[in-house]
Amino acid sequence: MIVVPLGTSSAAPTLTRHLSATAFVNQGYILLFDCGEGTQLRLQQCRLKHSRIEAIFITHLHGDHYFGLMGLLSSMALARRTARLVIVAPEALSRLVHLLPGIREEELPFPVEYVPLREGMAKAVVYDRPDLYVEARAVDHRVFSVGYRVQEKPRPPRIDAARARMLGVTDYTDFVALKRGQAVQGSHAQMVTPEEVLIPGSAPRAFAYVVDTRPCEGAVQLARNATLLMHEATFSEALRKRAHDTAHSTARQAAMVAKRAGARRLLLCHFSSRYRELDTLVAEARAVFEPAEAAEELRSYPLEPYADES
Amino acid sequence: MIVVPLGTSSAAPTLTRHLSATAFVNQGYILLFDCGEGTQLRLQQCRLKHSRIEAIFITHLHGDHYFGLMGLLSSMALARRTARLVIVAPEALSRLVHLLPGIREEELPFPVEYVPLREGMAKAVVYDRPDLYVEARAVDHRVFSVGYRVQEKPRPPRIDAARARMLGVTDYTDFVALKRGQAVQGSHAQMVTPEEVLIPGSAPRAFAYVVDTRPCEGAVQLARNATLLMHEATFSEALRKRAHDTAHSTARQAAMVAKRAGARRLLLCHFSSRYRELDTLVAEARAVFEPAEAAEELRSYPLEPYADES
User: In chain B, which end has fewer C-beta atoms inside a 10 angstrom radius, N or C?
Assistant: First the structure.
């Protein structure tokens, strides 16, 4: 599980930062969070194939978070995609996108399944696959906006095969029985119990993606014990009032969310174009929550299992 | 007058070529031709301010030619533009663009004036300013599509001041009279005629922008005696049938249009992503029309006055 920020600029692109989009990459598939203009190009630039995108999650309907969707759908059509694409987004999106010539629904060679988010929602599981699910929660922005949490499902325990053999268990059916929680006969007629040979699966990982919001309870809930929290930090503390008035967060506020939530690591993103250098924002965040840094575009951030859990 | 290609890729962007857009830059203003996804970023990258854009001309409603418009309008709004923006485009565009949250017409702080192009049109002057006008003509694509010609207006003759003084004309009112075509009294009571002192203005320049079309009479008319013709060259001759079937042109066909039209210089553009190198396309064009080359993105191409006219 790897997170790759594709764009970390708020509102408008700059010469060094692009519009909002982040790829969550796992074996064989990609979940895309937001899709600002130019996202398809950013994917190319880090060699992520858009054919691997299984679902797209849009936080809200401000252009800098979804104007890249049209071009991406267009290129998927051009590449003759046939696989279903899931789009989770505020409900107005599905009506709007397909009005555009070139990507009308009947023109696309692949099915698009919309998961509409309705204003007033508190939280919902919006996507589910065997290895993880994605939860959406309302956050606090000028328009209806949500954050997302990718939650890995508990992984089954596995058998310490060397130890099992040492205790005289070698047969496949005995291994299956142990995994089911049944004791089996080992060497010397001794019974071997699951507790003796099972190693618990690693603790489930979680990635929270929270942009375009004031610091809020929804953000804290999304980030609770997250392996990695990506949180917007549009402004520095000097512009705290402006952050509040425009319904954004400061870097320090992002750090306080991370701290309250017990997140393990914080990636700041969604920077105002007024900041050429991000040192001040990072310093303000670290004063509150040490494992904070500015998201670097196109860099891979692996989701490591919790170091202190097993 | 300078032309700056911002994107020369057809359909989808590549790692080296971007989606269709070309800036026509003159003193103090920009006319933008097509606006594929990422155009606002390409403008930034060659230090062209979007605030200087006076009018945008869209050739047709395939996404790779207009999906950048939404983000550009968005950024113009964010920069608090107040100046009117003219958008010349197939008529459906105005209905569509402003349906999108964030760029609804009432949300924009500047007026947008649409010049709608209707299917079935042959040609029309679609934009007029003191120094030039822009003509649109239908071309031959899978959907209604036009090409554009920027036509400089004749520049008034100017007075060869040194020669006028030599003939004894120094007074401002005499200069004005000469420009009006009246003879005036010079030194030694001799009359000085306009013919003796007027230098004709340089020949008017013209830039033709023709993309997404089979070679056609409309293209030839747009390019007649043009200083610079930018013409699509999606395919090489080896894919001539494919070019015809998809309603595009080969590089050689673009060159034949340039030749028939008596254009001075040809810039090929709108290249299929299958061509990493463009040598073959350029060679095929040059075999027919020598002053042909592949448009390089972000390079400035000055519109020089005709060398052989004065």
Answer: C
CB < 8 Å to A103, chain B: 63
B246 contacts chain A (CB < 8 A): no
CB of B92 less than 8 A from some CB of A: yes
In the A/B pair of chains, how many CB contacts fall below 8 A? 100
Is position A183 within any domain? Answer: yes
> Residue A105: its pLDDT value, please?
84
A106 and A219 housed in the same domain: yes
Q: Given an 8 Å threshold on Cβ–Cβ distance, is A100 in contact with B96?
A: yes
For chain B, the domain total comes to: 2
pLDDT one digit per residue (tens) for chain B, 310 residues: 999 999 999 999 999 999 999 999 999 899 999 999 999 999 999 999 999 999 999 999 999 999 999 999 999 999 999 999 999 999 999 888 878 877 888 889 999 999 999 999 999 999 999 999 999 999 999 999 999 999 999 988 888 989 988 888 988 898 889 988 899 988 777 899 999 898 888 889 999 999 999 999 999 999 999 999 999 999 999 999 999 999 999 999 999 999 999 999 999 999 999 999 999 999 999 999 999 999 999 999 999 864 444 3
Question: Is A307 within a domain?
Answer: no
Tell me, yes or no, whether A294 lies in a domain.
yes
Cβ of B244: how many Cβ atoms within 10 Å?
15
Instruction: For residues B176 and B52, state if they share a domain.
Output: no
Asked whether A42 and A18 are in contact (CB, 8 A), the reply is yes
Question: What Rg, from alpha-carbon coordinates, does chain B have?
Answer: 22
Query: Across the interface, do A78 and B11 touch by the CB < 8 Å criterion?
Result: yes
Identify whether the C-beta of residue A37 lies closer than 8 Å to the C-beta of residue A12. Answer: no
Pairing of strands A228-232, B132-138: unpaired
Nearest to B63 among A15, A71, A96 (CB): A71
Nearest CA in chain B to A13: B41
Tell me, yes or no, if B68 comes closer than 8 A to chain A by beta carbon: yes
A221 — contact with chain B (CB < 8 Å)?
no
pLDDT in tens, B252-280: 999 999 999 999 999 999 999 999 999 99
A211, B13, B98 from A298: Cα distances, Å: 18, 18, 32
Query: In this complex, is the C-beta atom of A107 within 8 Å of any C-beta atom belonging to chain B?
Result: no
Interface with A, mutate which of B39, B75, B91 (most A CBs under 10 A): B75
Q: Which of A64, A128, A140, A245 is the catalytic position?
A: A64
Residue type, B220: V
**Structural contact between residues B207 and B133, judged by C-beta atoms closer than 8 angstroms:** no
Q: Are residues B150 and B290 in the same domain?
A: yes
**One domain, residues B173 and B212:** no
B80 falls within a domain: yes
* Domain region containing A187: 159-196
Question: How close A41 gets to chain B, by Cα (Å)?
Answer: 7
A196, A198, A199, A201: CA torsion to nearest 10: -150
Residues A95 and A164 in one domain: no
Q: Does B37 touch chain A (CB under 8 A)?
A: yes
Whether A64 sits among the annotated catalytic residues: the reply is yes
Return the higher-pLDDT residue of B167 and A137.
A137
The interface predicted TM-score (ipTM) is 0.86
